[in-house]
Write a structure and sequence with these properties.
The structure holds two protein chains of two kinds. By secondary structure, chain A is of the alpha/beta class. Chain A is 41% helix and 18% strand. Chain B has a single domain, classed as Alpha/Beta hydrolase fold, catalytic domain (Rossmann fold, 3-Layer(aba) Sandwich). Classes of the chains: A alpha/beta, B alpha/beta.
Chain lengths: 271, 276
């Protein structure tokens, strides 16, 4: 594969199409293949650059090491984009990749033209939390990951994946997936071992207010739980944000409604 | 994407992993992405090289010209393997890509180490099938009708007609949404496929294959593909067959782990021809 050297690591990416660059950052258990279903329509008018973050496939990581960190992935993405000619680029992130894209926008607005966040992942701190709770509860997704990690340690890969996927899209979500998406998640299962100690900071109101790039936040109409709330709350505090909802879709919305997602993204990028 | 310049065009390809090179040739309406599901297990021990044939995604072909044909794609794959310059490769093809891989093996055995044909597409001529009737394939008219719909702008209508002709009524509707999108990205290639000029397989063709060959089929595949597979396997010297239970034509997407296990086992074994 093609790679760019970032912070001492050869970061793999797939680049398809011609036009303004659109960098795509996958989420938990994803890799450059996450974007396959939308790559066709998007690459008709854009140079789509789909990265694989440090330790994700095509690397076969064993889970050892201390550089699976949110801050490392943000730094890597910044160093990657800085090597693209021309900048600024459009940046799109899904789930945990949406968190990364948000942090890139916060730290290096000079590198970005527009920002697309598909159900970004993360906790909301007290300044953003709608509930008047003073002591934020531990993130339910963090608990899910801890349970999945225990299952991986005991050799139960399928159980670990099922636990994670069902935690996001509800009971039965893993059962509904066909063999192909399951295999791609399986190829990245050991990254969950890193994710326990990734040190992801919650979103704050000041963080959201600092994002100046024109931003589109997209959610699946059928997504439930925290992931269905975070993007809505963030959008209320981002000065330049639009939102869109994909009917009938859940968290992996680009696999469930690739044409709707691309239509909305292309309209936003082409404004 | 990475590309190799072959026969006047840039052939894009995905290149993942280290080890002996394994070149993968996709079938009708597909492209390099069709192998996504196998990349993880195969790239642990092999350099997996997945090209997109001329005119397939990421090219957005307009359907005009006479450079979409079996002969062109076979020439392109021969040139591609030569340009890789990595010595003999293992070659795997699915469906129409299996036909292409078979022809490469027939023409240029020196380029190959082993051959894997996953439900290769094509017809059997009179030397292989006593029921063979010369003339256009019974499916040709339906393929032409599909191409006409696509040329007229009815992409989904054309694809549905094609898939249902190939795999029975309801085949298109049953496809996962992601698979449908990949076919849409390559819909215009069906316009070329009407003039594919795919020659039927003959007994002499099969007997000319000297490369150690594995045929892989879906145990539940319907139509002519299983017959083609079994007939070819009966005539390719020393070939093996593996049928994957509970799968149909896209068997590697339906049972990726089993498929990879079969492929990796076949590729790892010393070939029978080198033992003799």
């Amino acid at each position: 594969m093609q790679t760019l050297r970032v912070n001492g690591y050869d970061m793999a990416y797939l680049e398809v199409g011609h036009g303004p660059p659109l960098v795509c950052v996958h989420g938990t258990l994803g890799d450059f293949r996450t974007w396959s279903a939308v790559m066709g329509p998007l690459s008709k008018t854009h140079r789509v650059i789909a990265v694989s973050l440090r330790h994700f496939f095509p690397e076969h990581w064993d889970g050892n090491g201390d550089d699976y960190l949110m801050s490392q992935h943000v730094d890597d993405t910044i160093a990657f984009i800085a090597q693209i000619d021309p900048v600024p680029v459009d940046l799109m992130g899904h789930s945990r990749g949406g968190h990364i894209a948000f942090r890139v926008a916060q730290q290096r607005p000079d590198l970005l033209r527009r920002l697309v966040l598909l159900e970004p992942g993360g906790d909301l701190d007290a300044s953003l939390s709608r509930a008047a709770s003073t002591a934020p509860a531990p993130s339910p997704l963090a608990n899910r990951i801890a349970v999945s990690v225990e299952k991986i340690a005991s050799g139960d890969i399928e159980g670990a994946l099922q636990n994670f996927v069902d935690g996001i899209d509800g009971d039965g979500a893993w059962e509904r997936l066909s063999a192909a998406p399951r295999q791609q998640l399986r190829d990245n299962v050991f990254t969950l071992l890193g994710q326990i100690g990734e040190n992801r900071k919650p979103f704050t109101r000041a963080d959201a207010q600092a994002i100046r790039a024109p931003t589109l936040l997209i959610g699946g109409a059928e997504t439930s739980g925290a992931l269905s709330q975070i993007w809505r709350v963030l959008s209320e505090h981002m000065p330049n944000a639009k939102t869109a909802i994909i009917p009938g879709a859940r968290h992996w919305m680009f696999d469930q409604a690739p044409r709707d997602v691309t239509e909305i993204v292309l309209e936003f990028l082409g404004d | 994407m990475q590309t190799l310049h072959v026969n006047g065009t840039d052939i894009p390809y995905l290149d993942i992993g280290r080890g002996p090179p394994l070149v993968c040739v996709h079938g009708s309406l597909c492209d390099f992405r069709i192998w996504s599901v196998l990349l993880g297990p195969l790239a642990r021990s092999h350099r997996v090289i997945a090209p997109s044939l001329r005119h397939f995604f990421p090219a957005y072909w307009d359907g005009v010209g006479d450079t979409y044909s079996i002969a062109q794609h076979v020439d392109d794959m021969i040139g591609f393997i030569e340009r890789l310059d990595s010595g003999p490769v293992d070659l795997m093809g699915h469906s129409r890509g299996g036909h292409i891989a078979f022809r490469v093996a027939g023409l240029r055995p020196n380029l190959l180490r082993k051959l894997i044909l996953a439900e290769p597409g094509g017809e059997l001529d009179g030397s292989l099938d006593p029921d063979y009737e010369p003339g256009p394939s019974p499916l040709a008219a339906r393929f032409a009708a599909s191409a006409a719909k696509i040329a007229a702008g009815d992409i989904d209508g054309g694809l549905e007609y094609f898939m249902d002709a190939l795999e029975g009524p309801g085949a298109w509707k049953r496809l996962p949404i992601t698979s449908k999108q990949l076919l849409r990205d390559n819909a215009m290639t069906l316009i070329g496929q009407v003039n594919d000029k795919r020659p039927p397989f003959s007994k002499a063709d099969t007997e000319a294959i000297r490369t150690p060959t594995l045929f892989i089929g879906g145990a539940n595949t319907k139509g002519f593909l299983p017959k083609v597979l079994r007939t070819l396997a009966a005539h390719v010297a020393g070939s093996e067959i593996a049928m994957i239970p509970n799968t149909t034509h896209p068997m590697f997407e339906q049972a990726p782990q089993k498929y990879c296990e079969i492929v990796l086992d076949f590729l790892a074994r010393p070939s029978s021809s080198s033992e003799s």
